Amino acid sequence: MAAPKLRLRQAIDSLYNLGPATHESYTRLALECFRNNDADQAKRLQSHMDIHLYQPTDTFLQNRLLHLYAKSGKLSHAQHLFDKMTHRDVNSWNAMLSLYAKLGLIQDLRVMFDDMPSCDSVSYNTVISGFAKNGRASEAVDAFVTMQNKGFKPTEYTYVSILNVCAQLLDLRKGKQVHGRILTRNLGHNAFIWNALTDMYAKCGEIDRAWWLFNRCGNKNLVSWNLMISGYLKNGQSEKCIDLFYQMQTLGLKPDQITFSNVLRAYFQSGYINEAAKLFAEIREKDKICWTIMIVGYEQNGKEEDALMLFNQMLSENVKPDKYTISSLVSSCAKLASLSHGQTIHGKALCMGVDDDLLVSSALIDMYCKCGVTTDAWFVFRIMPVRNVVSWNTMIGGYAQNGQDLEALHLYEKMVQEDMKPDNITFVGVLSACVHASLVEEGKKYFASMSKLHGLIPTYDHYACMINLLGRSGLMDEAMNLIATIPCEPNSLIWSTVLSVCAIKGDIKHGEIAARRLFELEPLSAGPYIMLSNMYAACGRWKDVASVRSLMKTRNVKKFAAYSWIEIDREVHKFVADDRTHPDTKIIYKKLDELISKLQKFGFTPNTNMVLHDVGEEEKRESICYHSEKLALAFGLIKKHHGSIRIIKNIRVCSDCHVFMKLVSKVTERPITLRDSNRFHHFHDGKCSCNDYW
User: Fold this and answer.
1) Which residues pair with 564 in a beta bridge?
2) Prediction pTM value
3) Which value, in Å, is the radius of gyration of the alpha carbons in the chain?
4) Where are the beta strands (DSSP E) in 443-516?
5) Which of 200, 350, 592, 664 could pair with 634 as two cysteines, CB 3.0-4.6 Å apart?
6) Backbone angles phi, psi at 252, to 5 degrees
7) Residue 522, Cβ neighbours under 10 Å: how many?
8) What is the pLDDT of residue 74?
9) In whole angstroms, what is the distance from residue 191 CA to residue 218 CA?
10) Contact of 483 with 517, CB cutoff 8 Å
11) What is the per-residue pLDDT across 210-250, written as a single tens digit (0 to 9) for each?
12) Alpha helices by DSSP H, 59-171
């Protein structure tokens, strides 16, 4: 314990041995408590006064104690003292106002302010600041107007608070009015007001005006620089934000945690991921915000593994994550389809008590759905104390993607019954469920209800769902007619959907139309070329295949690699077709050949018609037998001797692999979950959750 605090404690201890003290002694000790910011010893001093029935004739001593309790956030201490005071002046009331504002007790703040027998400028400043800091911006404005109407002159402190309110409300007009009053009172030279003006203009979108003020501020401190850096960041000028960061350092200003947080965000917005990592490594004292920004940045830039590794480092350095950190990590696990890591993060959320937070819960639902475990997603959804439209959408979409189409539609009906208003994302899930379940009439009904019942304008996503539904149901002419009704020019999503449906149905006529449109809209995207080429190959039109491939070569269109991955003991193993690079290649191929031989006894024959190259039968067989998902499955069966196998593939699973997975699930009596680019496939006892419709 520091020497002054120790002496204070010893002095108050001595009071209990000496009995009642003099007014001067009580006042001296109260001042010592105030100087040392020691609310606990102040409470002991107050208790001694109560025991000896000492009632000071003035309010100075009690006000000192009240302000100390307010500063320390000691509500019960302050309330007890305030209630027993026989004489209260405006300072006594202001101390209680300050305490309520500090603790965010806005209702108590409002009631006490209304009950005050008299008030001053400090009272109004405290109330305005309390409203502003607790998200009651409009009430702060009302108090500011009342203050002036009652003849109280705003102080510099008042103007800073009300400018912060204007920034919160993005009320540029009101902000300019306040700026005008500041100029008429000749207060523009004040550094705090100057910073508040800079911040207000930046947040309200007038970044050039903010920059003008910044450059004319004679006393630019770290706060000034941070406000400008933050302002440029909020206005989408990340490069300028980074430039200012380097400028301030050349002037000898040392960045703080606020600076680092904003610059890290700027790097990620600008796509400078490596630069962000380098800066993060150079920060000596990293706070929770910096760690979270890095984790979120990695998650949003396709570096999910790095996000998880950084989280482990964060914990090792005893930095406690918050709900934003957790929700971002859960999203990383969802993108990786890493159930084991997701369950671990869920456990951390439970320990921290943030598992029922709306943001975290919705992320958990999404993660479990994207890992194919809808039972756990439903459990999280069911116990949520509060649900919003995002929660409902995530669960509905999760059911639809996992082949539980009727559950998705039932949940939508329940959502409407509970007066939760659906949005555009809701109907993507609902229409997707109709597509997978081949519910044409129901799909038409839901599509029509968007505008008629809910006032929503269908987007390209909704039209794509309907085209998919109609086309797969043999109603391609109706699908093409629907395209003609789209208010805007059909985009690549629409024509990609048409081409995909045509590939499934073998509709070369409409497929060629869609492919040509895509060649115009996305000339460097390999997908349409490959899909049309495959359609030609499937019906033996090898000259047309050669023509499409020649066009790809002329345009320098690059194919993307198809791959699958599987997680074993928290380690991800990635495979491509005919992969020979894995350390366990020999046993993988041996296991796969054994499986194929075993399945052939049940009538399975590799579908060489799926090989879209003009090669010999033996080459076709080898090509189809060693697809990446089959290799991943063989490896999973080798490493996991019981339980389900979970595989992820980056493109749509082919029909041969689909049949193969169904038969393996029956022969081995092992459930298999395969997530491809379209949906989940849950294979069990020779059947798939998609009902062979994907």
Assistant:
1) 575, 649
2) 0.76
3) 34
4) none
5) 592
6) 90, 5
7) 16
8) 84
9) 9
10) no
11) 999 998 887 789 999 999 999 999 999 999 999 999 999 99
12) 60-72, 75-84, 90-103, 106-115, 121-133, 137-149, 156-169
